[in-house]
DNA sequence: CCAGACACTTGACCGATTCAAGAAAAGGCG
DNA sequence: CGCCTTTTCTTGAATCGGTCAAGTGTCTGG
């Protein structure tokens, strides 16, 4: 069987994580956090709302945004903005990884970065600049779209 | 006197560049292209419209978007999208440089990249991925805002 | 179990950008 | 040089992602 059974396990886990972060535990929060975790990342607010709704029965888009904001502020979720796409959300892994975006289908794939020694973290800027973070987006074609694209 | 005189020189230059790109030469296009060039980059559509208007006398925002699209497609202008900001435009220099964005004041500064050997251009991805471009955005505090910010 | 704080719903609103239809103007050609 | 076609500009409406605000509902600490 694919549905239910131990389907509330992730919910309990989500509750755990919310509590650990000092947040109130509510159905929408558990549902959204679970949706973000399960998906493997890179879903937008609307999609997350749809998924969360399957559990909560009903969830306003506004609430979804509220929850995502709260989860992001709490460090449980990381948001990423890709040019031309709505904001995407993924589980915060504290590994400062980057993203590859397919120009054809829009799919997103994580790209690991050598932790702590990310070469791209060293901009050629004067000393006075306080560089806190580097966000790298790789653009190109994913294997599927590359194969489907007639090479000129 | 501050106005006119040789003020139409950049216009002629813009006309030149448009023609070279095989585009029709129009007042809006010359004005916008000049505005992008003069500014040193990183202005949004609305600001560019204002500047261009000083020359053309009147220019719709829609036309500004049309022109910017055309210029971008023609490779004369490069557009950059920074999370939380409207799209910015700058003269295309074909040097694949990156951007530093101040979290406090939103100012943008170019960051040079070692041409041809950009370390950030080597994502750790399987062979089948066709990586065409890497966009790097550095986030932090510019000298001015850094000085103004009380260090905790 | 109750109060107060915090979260959710609904609905209006906003900024950035695009779509659509008609008027204007660029430029090739006779 | 002036016409005609094509492209571009103007105006106005619409879309999209997201936020603001007010009221109702629901956690959780005491």
TrEMBL record, chains A, B:
Binds 1 zinc ion per subunit. It is found in: Cytoplasm. Zn(2+) binds at residues 102, 105, 142, 145. One of its GO terms (biological process) is regulation of secondary metabolite biosynthetic process. PANTHER family: TRANSCRIPTIONAL REGULATOR FURA (PTHR33202:SF18), ZINC UPTAKE REGULATION PROTEIN (PTHR33202). Belongs to the Fur family. Its main location: cytoplasm. This is Fur family ferric uptake transcriptional regulator. GO terms for cellular component: cytoplasm. The keyword Nucleus does not apply. InterPro entries: FUR (IPR002481), Fur_C (IPR043135), WH-like_DNA-bd_sf (IPR036388), WH_DNA-bd_sf (IPR036390). Keywords: Cytoplasm, DNA-binding, Iron, Metal-binding, Repressor, Transcription, Transcription regulation, Zinc. Its cofactor is Zn(2+). The keyword DNA-binding applies. GO terms for molecular function: DNA-binding transcription factor activity; transcription cis-regulatory region binding; zinc ion binding. It comes from the Bacteria.
């Amino acid at each position: 069987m694919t549905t239910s059974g131990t389907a509330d396990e992730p919910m309990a886990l989500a509750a755990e994580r919310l509590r650990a972060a000092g947040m109130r535990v509510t159905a929408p929060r558990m549902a959204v956090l679970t949706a973000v975790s399960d998906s493997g990342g890179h879903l937008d607010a609307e999609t997350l709302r749809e998924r969360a709704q399957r559990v909560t029965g009903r969830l306003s888009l506004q609430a979804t945004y509220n929850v995502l904001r709260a989860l992001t502020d709490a460090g449980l979720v990381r948001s990423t903005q890709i040019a031309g796409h709505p904001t995407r959300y993924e589980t915060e892994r504290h590994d400062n990884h980057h993203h590859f975006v397919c120009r054809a289908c829009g799919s997103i794939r994580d790209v690991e970065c050598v932790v702590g020694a990310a070469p791209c973290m060293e901009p050629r800027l004067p000393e006075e600049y306080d560089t806190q973070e580097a966000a790298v987006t790789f653009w190109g074609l994913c294997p599927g779209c590359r194969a489907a694209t007639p090479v000129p």
